[in-house]
Write a sequence for this structure.
């Protein structure tokens, strides 16, 4: 679509986010053959950026600041549904306890607290803010 402008346009105003994002696996997608021709980078989550870039109007781009964890996770699942653990996400304890993808994983930054490897269990600040989740997790594990 002509409404997509590319990540480089976003960089002009969002330099810090661009620098951090450029070191993530999401930024590498454009280099992968199977992703050629698909929308990657900022606009894959935030939607077409042309109107926002031209007008500077924050309402002309998808922002996640005031969205709930389920709505944010639905955005992640548009690409990440396919592996078994992601397909079951809506039936799992995270969904039931209102813990979304970005409570533990970051799409913008490489950060050990917010970009958790799938091979480790993360129990930290994000989960501490959701007391029911830890109580249920303890009950399931015992």
């Amino acid at each position: 679509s002509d409404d997509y402008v590319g990540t480089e346009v976003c960089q002009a105003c969002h330099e810090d986010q661009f620098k951090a994002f450029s070191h993530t696996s999401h930024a590498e997608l454009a280099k992968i053959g199977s992703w050629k021709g698909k929308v990657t980078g900022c606009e894959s989550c935030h939607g077409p950026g042309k109107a926002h870039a031209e007008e500077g109007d924050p309402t002309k781009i998808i922002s996640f600041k005031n969205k709930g964890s389920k709505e944010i996770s639905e955005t992640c699942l548009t690409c990440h549904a396919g592996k078994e653990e992601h397909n079951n996400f809506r039936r799992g304890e995270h969904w039931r306890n209102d813990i979304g993808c970005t409570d533990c994983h970051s799409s913008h930054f490489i950060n050990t607290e917010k970009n958790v490897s799938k091979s480790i269990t993360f129990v930290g600040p994000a989960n501490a803010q959701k007391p029911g989740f830890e109580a249920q997790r303890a009950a399931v594990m015992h």
Notes: The first helix runs from residue 7 to 11.
